[in-house]
Amino acid sequence: MRILHTSDWHLGRSLHRVPMLDAQRTFLDHLVATVDERGADVVLVSGDVYDRAVPPLSAVELFDDALHRLAAAGVPTVMISGNHDSARRLGVGAGLIGRAGIHLRTDPEGCGTPVVLSDGHGEVAFYGLPYLEPALVKDTLGASRAGHEAVLTAAMDRVRADLATRPAGTRSVVLAHAFVAGGEPSDSERDITVGGVAAVPAGVFDGVDYVALGHLHGSQRVTERVRYSGSPLAYSFSEADHRKTMWLVDLDGEGSLAAERVDCPVPRGLVRLRGHLDTLLDDPRHEEHRESWVEATLTDPVRPDEPMARLMERFPHTLSLVFDPERAPDDPLASYAQRLRGRDDHQIAEDFVAHVRGGSGPDEQERTVLRAAFDDVRVDSGVDEVSR
Length: 388
Description:
The chain is an alpha/beta fold. 32% of the residues lie in helices and 22% in strands. It is globular and about 70 Å long.
């Protein structure tokens, strides 16, 4: 069976206020063409169809058009909700849409109920695990605790229990939206940290033939059978070096697989430039980036006059301007942003406690309170998005 694995469309998203809808439409054209040209038997979309819970009408219309075209192609599509999606909104009409071969899996209760497709070697069971917010699905799934590993383990227990009832030789594919250990993140994924631990081990998915992951935006292989397709477009400058692709996976009758990356259209190159303003404006090596989307980091010790206007004379598609003056590491004027770089919200809160106490950070009980507070805020925000 030939599987086309994609994820993280983020329909409706912009790049530094530049609308990406046309580029997303071009990608979906490419997706439908690839299904036809490469003879895909099934399309998988592993979450984050939309960029937010209540997407703009233009994004909904583009999604609707994509569904009609995939249904018309006669190739089944299995799709799950991600942490950016409203699972309930995305799942409206799932039963009716399923009759057209578009199978939406947005309800955690359905983790152990697969979409079963057949080829010349027998059946393949596709299990859709939508994004599982631990605090919201712990009781539903009967998980031992409210953590990412615990709820995914509980969901996979349901998958394995169902698979055990199926005929010998049934092959299995799982779609999941999660941060799996070994994956390389970028700046444009929304944080899903719970209790300070977001990543789950790949071993959670043992026992199935292929795991089609979504959430991380870089196309990558965690193991031979566990892969991220990545987003089809770059949604932050941290993805400037990404090669945006989909996975074309051939699953044979014995469950062995061969995987190939299929490149996605690139609307415009992304580049990060760094240096003194005069150097960026004069260096001939940068001429190749004249038509790229540019993030410029200026290292001038003193902020130059009208830097953005001057940059845009040479790089008319400059979207981001960052100042990072050259200073000694112990310079008291070193930027606050530099001191925070690479630190998550919980670590910043602990640093603040240490600062106001004159050096003594929180004890373990206080760390537990801080973690709980951050988790409660994130869960409440997710519930608010769904209820709007």
